[in-house]
Structures are given as structure tokens and as C-alpha cells.
Design goal:
Pfam families: VTT_dom (PF09335). The protein is an all-alpha fold. The chain is about 80% helix and about 0% strand. The protein is flat, with a radius of gyration of 22 Å.
């Protein structure tokens, strides 16, 4: 499906999907980037063009969300925030917290689903300095895009191996958790008798 849309509409598809994901319109951002990396590995897409359009989609999305937060967010939450439990004191506390941790939130927030969509709006609502926001957004956006593109690129032909390794790790983790629960329940039963 991805290749169909890219063939039909070109690399603009990459831009639009990532832009939508960042501004909060549901889109599968990480999995989409991994799939792009796989297509690049197979020579179906160009690395340079895919990276440029992906980075632009993310960065433009972050800038649009920032602008919406800055110019529409405060009036919106002042009027309707009470209906969703976001009162003025809570909004003020969120702004203060964002100013304290904003740099790290902008740089690495893209790696956390949910935070990825909320942080640009919160930066705008908080009136986070625009030039700093742009710098951190560009750096964070490029790192995030390249991380998932390269993951798809290097894992692309190894998907079956990745599934086996991932399944083995998951099995091991579940096994350890079950064993720990079993020991804990045995210990509690023993303490009940004493």
C-alpha cells in the first residue's frame, strides 16, 4: 500500500504521512519509517529523497503544531479547559514544567508516542523561545527520522531473523516474570502458615 501511494503521488506521500502524525492526525509514524528503510534497502526508494521528505514532514509538522499552540492554544484552553480538567493553575504548572525540561522534551519527545504529538503544542502554549524550539526540533527530528529509517534499512532483509530473536527475547522475559510470580506466591503462602 505504501509503495502504491508513493508511486502514485511521489515522495510527497512521505511528507504528508509524517506531517499528519506529528500534528496529531493518526498515522503510523515509526512503522512507516521502518518500512521506508526496508524499501530503501531493496532499492525501491532513494535514501536521500526519502530522508529529506521525512525530515521536512516532521519539522514542518512540529512548527505548525507550535504555531497552533502559541496562537490558538491559550485562548482555547482559557475558554474550554475547565471542561477537560485543564484549569488555569494546571496550565500554568504545565508551562513552568515545560520551560524547565523543554529542551529534552523537544529533542527526545519524538521517541515517545503521545508526547510526540503533545509537546509541540505545549511548547507553543508555553511561549517557549521560537529559535530554540526550531533548533531542537530540527536536531530531534533528524535524529528520530534517521533512527527508524536506518533500523528499517539494516533490518529490512533480516525481518525473519528479527522476528525469531524478538520472539525468543519475549518468551524469556515472560518466563522470568512467571517464575518470579511463582516464587512470590510460594513465599506468601509460606508466611501465611507461620
Amino acid at each position: 500500500m505504501v509503495s502504491h501511494y508513493i508511486n502514485a503521488f511521489g515522495y510527497t506521500t512521505i511528507f504528508l504521512i509524517l506531517f499528519c502524525g506529528i500534528v496529531g492526525i493518526p498515522a503510523p509514524e515509526e512503522s512507516f519509517l521502518i518500512i521506508l528503510g526496508m524499501f530503501i534497502a531493496k532499492g525501491q526508494l532513494l535514501l536521500y529523497s526519502s530522508t529529506i521528505y521525512a525530515c521536512l514532514g516532521v519539522i514542518v509538522g512540529m512548527l505548525v503544531a507550535y504555531a497552533l499552540g502559541r496562537y490558538a492554544g491559550v485562548p482555547f484552553f482559557s475558554k474550554y479547559g475547565k471542561y477537560v480538567g485543564l484549569t488555569e493553575p494546571k496550565l500554568k504548572a504545565a508551562r513552568e514544567k515545560f520551560h524547565k525540561h523543554g529542551k529534552w522534551t523537544i529533542l527526545f519527545g519524538l521517541f515517545v508516542p503521545g508526547l510526540r504529538q503533545i509537546s509541540p503544542y505545549l511548547a507553543g502554549i508555553s511561549h517557549y523561545p521560537f529559535l530554540l524550539y526550531v533548533c531542537f526540533s530540527v536536531i530531534g527530528g533528524i535524529v528520530w527520522v534517521l533512527s527508524f529509517l536506518l533500523l528499517g534499512y539494516f533490518v529490512g532483509d533480516q525481518v525473519h531473523i528479527s522476528i525469531i530473536v524478538g520472539g525468543a527475547i519475549l518468551f524469556f522475559v515472560v518466563y522470568v516474570i512467571l517464575q518470579l510470580r511463582k516464587k512470590r506466591s510460594t513465599r506468601f503462602k509460606g508466611s501465611d502458615h507461620s
